[in-house]
Every structure is written in C-alpha cells, then in structure tokens.
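[step 3/7] inverse_fold.run input=structure_tokens len=85
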C-alpha cells in the first residue's frame, strides 16, 4: 500500500525509516559521518516537513502494516518529475 505523507506522524515515520535504511546500507559507501550529515540535512523531521511545504511529495510504502520504504517526488515548473527513494 502507498500512503501519502501529510502529517507529523507520517513525517516521523519517514524520518525513522530513512535513518534505518541509510545507517544499514550507506556507511560502507560514504562513511558514517557523511550518513549522519545527510540524514540531518535532508531526512530529518524538520527537513522533510520543509520539503513537503515547498511542494515535494513523500509517500510511505507499507507492507502488511509495516513501513517498508518511502519515496519523494519533485514536480518541476516545466512539468517534469525528479524522483528519489
């Protein structure tokens, strides 16, 4: 199931999921200090809320009642999209 991220509770769920995913997969590639920086700068509660206020669309992917993933989509002025996950 895909669930739109619209409120503080769902933003917090994305923040927790992002931290889990990033800390599990990215330290061998970019190192723990860089992971911590990226999470704080781009995937913290405040950063996600600000991005949503600026028009970025976040979605949670939920499988059997468990948060399994997330994605974010920017719709640009020219109508194209930039997707991140």
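[step 3/7] decode complete -> sequence:
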């Amino acid at each position: 199931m895909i669930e739109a991220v619209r409120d503080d509770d769902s933003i917090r769920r994305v923040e927790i999921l992002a931290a889990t995913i990033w800390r599990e997969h990215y330290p061998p590639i970019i190192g723990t200090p860089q992971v911590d920086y990226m999470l704080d700068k781009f995937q913290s509660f405040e950063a996600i809320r600000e991005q949503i206020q600026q028009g970025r669309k976040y979605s949670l992917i939920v499988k059997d009642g468990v948060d399994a993933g997330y994605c974010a989509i920017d719709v640009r002025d020219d109508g194209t999209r930039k997707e991140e996950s």
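[step 4/7] annotate
Residues 57 and 73 are 5 Å apart (CA to CA).
The mean pLDDT is 93.
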